[in-house]
Each structure stands twice: as structure tokens, then as C-alpha cells.
Design a protein that fits this description.
- This protein is α/β, with parallel strands linked by helices.
- The chain has two domains: about 130 residues, Aspartate Aminotransferase, domain 1; about 230 residues, Aspartate Aminotransferase, domain 2 (3-Layer(aba) Sandwich).
- Helix content is about 45%, strand content about 15%.
- The chain is globular.
């Protein structure tokens, strides 16, 4: 039977990992894979997570099933983290999932049950895994304008113009903060305008919040979610703890729904759980239990927030350092957008030959299009090395 298969195309990011691993050159730089690294080039376990693991080890007496929804303390804590004290928080229902990808797929499965005739709108560009997740569910997919590839900023006018044409037959996927792959951010005023259009036209907001705390602060990074929640009758949010808790391999995510009433929210959550049951049944518990411990313990939460602030400040430092070095090397401001972007990524808008030259000539590994993980750079010396390579291939 299996001989009917044709070989699948390798995932470009996973392929990049293999190429980087097999490259014997010293001084090679990986700005492809999306993980945070410290000044030693490591992705450490956060101290708050280590303390929580010790507590969990002493406290946990069983490995029996937790339930379809996962850890309910975790669910409440993440809903609080995202929606805070907004009036809509009471209508939010949350389900623990295997990572942010699991939340995206679960919410997509739930929506397809009642909205299979609707169109999913993704930003242009968007994260590479968005397209296969929604396409595999069965949705028709189209793209709305987002990045101005000349200025490397959000093309707000084009974005708003497109959203004005959308309505009740449309589901619009937004990046809550730290847009992947571009790094270009919507401002609070932009979110307010989008929320007003949502209220007027009735499209369903679907927010992918993978990097809360990586842009400006935990609260500021949730501004868009909360603005949309104040305007929309219904919305869905997929949240991830991979980055802000550095729990990558533990696969910790949360699928949240907001209905027009408490009853509708409860019913909708039931359909999310039904989709989970037919997919993976129960989510993994360990990472979710750690997050629940951290967010429900004031002392542990303080430790975590201090660490998260340090991670965010490191990324901002690397961005500003890279901007300053590129200014000096090019005697121009053409790369200043890097310091204005937020989160781990910036899209440099490089062509295929330039990305290939970075890899073959300079041992710099970047994703197609020139998406680079700024948080993958170790220190100022490596930033300088990366800047030299970038100037070389773009001169």
C-alpha cells in the first residue's frame, strides 16, 4: 500500500537545522530556528521553571489522567494572563493543548464544524505553519496585506482597506504581537481601528498569541486581544508557553474561546473538548502544571517576570546593536527597521540567491526570504560577524 506515496517536501526550517548541524565550519551562525539563546548560545531552563519542577516533584503523587481540558488552574491562569481584568474575561473558556500548534489546530477543527463555508484570512506574510494547519482542516484560505516590503513596516492603509471588505463569512487570523516572520508591529491605534471594523462588519477574530511578553510587556502585548474582545461578539485565541516560559519541548499551549454569552461560551468549549477527544484525547500535563505553579504563586511569578523582562531586554539590545553596526558599515539608515521590530524575528526581504550566499559563503543560516531570529545571536562579536555577512550579500 505505502508504495503509492510520493516523497513529501522537507520542512524548510527543519532542513535548515540539519544543514547547520552538518556544517563543519567554526563560527557558523544559526538565525533560522526560532528559539531564544543567551550570551553563551544556550537556550536555558528558566529559574522559575526549575523551582516549580522541584515543587511539582515533591507534590505530585500520581501520573493518572488529568482530563480532556488539562489543568484547570493552568487554564484559568492563562486566561487571566491574556485577558486580565477586562469585562470579557468572565466569558472566556480555556482548554490546555499540546503547544500553540495544538491550540491552533484544535480551534480550527472546532470552527470547521460550524463554519466550513467561511474563508480563513492570513496575513501576507505569515508563519509558515499557519497555511498547512488551516488547509488541512479544510478551510479556504486567502491573504490580507500586512508588510510593506520596502519600508519593512505594517502597511496599515492596505490592511484596513482589505478588512473593510470582510464580513460575517470571514475568519481573520491576527498575530497578537511579535509578528512572525516580519517583526513589524501593529500599534494600539491600529488595533482600535481593527476592533471597530470587527464590531461593524462582523468578521471573526482568530488571534495567534505565541510571544506574549517578548515585545513590550505582558499587558502591552495583549492590547490587541483585549481590544478585539471588547468589540467582537465571538473570538478565539491560541496561546503558547513555548517562548515566554522556554518550555519548547514540553508542548504547552492554550485554546481560548469567547462567546456572546456564558452559555454560548460553555457550549463552544464543549465542542473544543470534543475535537480534542477525537485527536489526542488528553494533553501532556508536566509543562502545564509548571506554568500553573508559576502563575499562581506570587513569588514564583515575580521570578518568572524578571527573567522574561531580561529576555525581552536582551532582544532589544541585540536589535539596537545590529542597527548601530549596520549604520556604521553602510553609512545609511536602510537597516534601522530592525531596531523598530519586536520579538525574535525580522524579515529582511532577501532573495533566494542572497539567502544561499549567506549560508554557503558566510555560514549564516537564515530562513527563505531572509527571516532571521535576532534572539539567535550570541554577543556583539557575533552580531558584527552577522552584519558583515549581511552587508556582503546585499551590496
Amino acid at each position: 500500500m505505502f508504495e503509492q506515496f510520493e516523497a513529501t517536501a522537507p520542512d524548510p526550517i527543519l532542513k535548515l537545522i540539519d544543514l547547520y548541524r552538518d556544517d563543519p565550519r567554526s563560527g557558523k551562525i544559526d538565525v533560522g530556528i526560532g528559539v531564544f539563546r543567551d550570551a553563551n548560545g544556550d537556550t536555558p531552563v528558566m529559574q522559575a521553571v526549575r523551582i516549580a519542577e522541584e515543587k511539582l516533584h515533591r507534590r505530585q503523587t500520581t501520573k493518572t489522567y488529568v482530563g480532556l481540558a488539562g489543568d484547570e488552574i493552568f487554564n484559568d491562569c492563562i486566561a487571566d494572563l491574556v485577558f486580565s481584568h477586562s469585562p470579557q474575561r468572565e466569558r472566556v473558556r480555556a482548554v490546555q493543548t499540546p503547544g500553540g500548534c495544538g491550540a491552533l489546530r484544535l480551534l480550527s477543527e472546532m470552527l470547521y464544524r460550524i463554519a466550513d463555508d467561511k474563508t480563513i484570512w492570513l496575513s501576507d506574510p505569515t508563519w509558515g505553519n499557519h497555511l498547512p494547519i488551516f488547509r488541512q482542516t479544510g478551510f479556504g484560505i486567502r491573504f490580507y496585506p500586512y508588510l510593506d516590503r520596502q519600508s519593512k513596516t505594517v502597511d496599515v492603509d492596505a490592511l484596513i482597506s482589505k478588512l473593510k471588505t470582510l464580513g460575517k463569512n470571514d475568519i481573520v487570523v491576527f498575530h497578537g504581537c511579535c509578528h512572525n516572520p516580519s517583526g513589524a508591529e501593529l500599534q494600539p491605534g491600529d488595533w482600535d481601528e481593527i476592533a471597530a471594523l470587527c464590531a461593524k462588519n462582523g468578521f471573526l477574530p482568530y488571534v495567534d498569541l505565541a510571544y506574549q511578553g517578548f515585545a513590550d510587556s505582558l499587558d502591552q502585548d495583549a492590547y490587541g486581544v483585549r481590544a478585539l474582545a471588547s468589540a467582537a461578539d465571538s473570538m478565539v485565541v491560541a496561546s503558547s508557553c513555548s517562548k515566554n516560559f522556554a518550555l519548547y519541548r514540553d508542548r504547552v499551549g492554550c485554546a481560548m474561546v469567547l462567546g456572546k454569552t456564558h452559555e454560548i461560551s460553555d457550549i463552544t468549549r464543549g465542542h473544543v473538548l470534543s475535537a480534542a477527544r477525537s485527536s489526542y484525547s488528553m494533553p501532556p500535563d508536566h509543562g502545564g502544571a509548571l506554568v500553573a505553579l508559576i502563575l499562581s504563586d506570587p513569588n514564583l511569578r515575580e521570578v518568572w517576570e524578571e527573567e522574561l523582562t531580561g529576555m525581552r531586554e536582551r532582544m532589544l539590545f541585540l536589535r539596537k546593536t545590529l542597527r548601530d553596526i549596520l549604520r556604521r558599515k553602510t553609512r545609511s539608515d536602510r537597516w534601522d527597521f530592525i531596531a523598530k521590530h519586536r520579538g525574535m524575528f525580522s524579515l529582511l526581504v532577501l532573495d533566494e540567491a542572497q539567502v544561499e550566499a549567506l549560508r554557503t559563503d558566510h555560514a549564516v543560516y537564515a530562513v527563505a526570504g531572509g527571516r532571521v531570529n535576532i534572539a539567535g545571536l550570541k554577543d556583539e562579536a557575533q552580531v558584527e560577524q552577522f552584519a558583515d555577512a549581511l552587508v556582503s550579500v546585499t551590496s
